[in-house]
Predict the structure.
Amino acid sequence: METVTELRAKFIAGTYTPTEAVEHSLQVIKAQDGEIHAFLDVYEDAKEEAKLATAEYAKNGQETPALLGIPFALKNNILVKGRKATGSSKILENYTAVYDATIVKRLKAAGAIFIGATNMDEFAMGGSTENSAFGPTKNPVDTLRVPGGSSGGSAAAVAMGAVPAAIGTDTGGSIRQPASYCGLVGFKPTYGAVSRYGLMAMGSSLDQAGPLTNSVADVELIHNVMAGQDDMDATTISDTTYPKVEIKETYTFGVPKHFLADGVDEDVLKAFDEHIEALKAAGHKVVGIELPLFEQGLAAYYIVMPAEVSSNLARYDGIRYGHSAKGDVLLDIYEKSRAEGFGAEVKRRILLGTHVLSSGYYDAYYGKAELVRKKMRAELAKVFAEVDIILTPTAPTPAFKLGEKSDPLAMYRQDIFTVPVNLTGVPALTFPMGTVKRDEKQLPVGVQYIAPHGGDARLFAIGKKVYDERA
Ligand code: GLN
């Protein structure tokens, strides 16, 4: 599929129009989504917007907004006024958003056309999209396998060629891991770079929204449209929040070898080693680094995240939004609505989160996890004094089969390399580093580049060189 940048050039040249692009998107969805199930909703009225965009290109060509007429898919935890916003949960099955998320406003202002809402793990909790209350999504590369998650619908929408770009959210890896499984570029920005206003909160201190695309240049373009301070989200940062992160010709990359020793598939490691060799051949330096606390990342994440989940999901009470069960007294309504509306994984995390925040356990669990998190940041700062970019595989394996990881702990392990990035708030980019063979199929695997706080532009610059300009 074409990139956003290529589409835009054709629109300007007049050799292809937004009307044709949107028609194409709707056709691909019609032909393939019965099997893939990337979409929860498809917006047929996008055709009307496309007509207007086509006319505007004819009139103003280059002078049109940067994303005019580009078809986009949005994860269904992002609010678009007048559209259903379910978070793939039964509890919000019939909920319609009453306002636009800030990122939606910004994408609309740049001319993006939304084609539909994508499937996800319920409230973004999961790594396979199997936790959706509306059935799983399949990986277009191999339909026996999961697309990853929780932004699996967004990844599949791009991988099946329905759209050149989709938006996901990433709390512990939910943009990067599905990008890796589906052979895409994915980006988790510096915490605070992108407003969370109008996104369904999972872990507020971890969540960021970002693009899934076919090129790093597209990720950069879309991120820059979405990013920036927002009065509606006090955690958004300005350009000067962090010291300037320099962009250079060659970099020193740090590889936490000790961290890769266990549980990474051998052929994934081989692809990773080949990537390292290619970086060296291009004149970069690659050195070993120690990040001992990163190995505690998953443990800390599965305390901090559920704690925040338990608090954020308290708002779904059967009164304010969505599904409401009948009950004799108020407490009955709360209990029944939540019991009927939430799926098993969501309940597991609410219980866990409530437990680690309860008096008597708070210090033992939540307090300790936050301490680990603080120390991880310090550890990272020390490493970033020596290296420019940290390098890991994005996930320890390629896409696994539907139903294969019924044990939640096995599923959680897929996020071992992505979770520390959210806990520390730094930006990370993933793009394909090769393929590995499973059951006679070549499956993509991604590499993860991690930069210091505010180093988003460094990742775009190096990503374009290494991935977009690959031979
Ligand atoms: N897979 C991770 C989890 O289940 C990450 C989810 C996310 O980033 N939203 O929590």
